[in-house]
Amino acid sequence: MDSISNGGNWKRAARAFNVDDLNVQVFNTIDDLAADAALEVNTFLRATLREKGSAAAILATGNSQIQFLKKLVALEGVDWSKITLFHMDEYLGIDQNHKASFRRYLRERVQTLVQPKAFHFISGDADLPLDECERYENLLAAKPIDLCCLGVGENGHIAFNDPPVARFEEKHRIKLVKLDDACKMQQVKEGHFPHLDAVPPYAFTLTIPALCSARKMICIAPEKRKAEPIRAALKGPISTACPASFLRRQKHCTLLLDHDSVSLL
Length: 265
What we know:
By secondary structure, the chain is α/β, with parallel strands linked by helices. It contains seven helices and twelve strands. Helix 1 packs across helix 2 and helix 2 runs parallel beside helix 3. The longest helix has 23 residues. The chain is globular.
C-alpha cells in the first residue's frame, strides 16, 4: 500500500513515505515540523502572489497548530495585505471573545499580527445560524481557495467533521453538526472547557469537499495523542469512521507527523 524512502524534499524531514496518493513527512521534533511547515507555506504563498497577485487560505486552530502559526507569522516575504483568510469551524452559540472561540484564537495569533486583506470569520453566535451558513458559503464560493492548513482530531476528524457526521461528498461548503463526545472530550483535555457539559453540543464546520478544494493542503498532526487516529487514517480503510483517511486520496496534500504521532505505524 505504501512506498517508503529516506529523506524528502524538506530539510528537516527525517523520513518520508507515501500512502496511496498522500505524501507523509516525519520529523524528529515538533519544532522541526512547525518550522518546516511554516517555510513551506510561506514559499507557497509567495509563489501564489507572484502568479496571481492575490491568495486565499483556510487556517485551522487547536493546540497542534500553535507553534506552526507562531513561526509562520514571524517569517518575512509574504504580503499579507493581498491574502484573504478563512477558518474552518466554530462553536455554535459562543461569542468572539470566549476563551475557546476559534475567532479569538485566530485573531490573536494571526489577524492582529499580519493584518491580512480580510479574515472572514464564522459568527458562532449568529442569531440566524442557517443564514450564517449561507453567508459563509457565498464567501467561500466567491474566491478559489489556494491553501488549506488543517489538523487531525483524536477521533480522526478534520475540522468538525466527526465520524458520525462526516461525508466525503456534500453539496455545501459549510454545515451545522452535532459534536461527537470524543471530540468534546478532546476540547476539555486541551483546557478549553472545564468539563464535558460545558462544551457546546453543536458547531459550524467546513465540509470535507470544501477543505479538499484547495490547490494545496498541509495537514499538521504531531503528539502521542494523535498516534491512534494517524494509524487509523493511514492503515485502516478509507472511511468516515476515520474522516482523515480521506486525505489518502488527495495528491495535493502533505501530512506532517512527528515520531510520537507516527509511533503506532
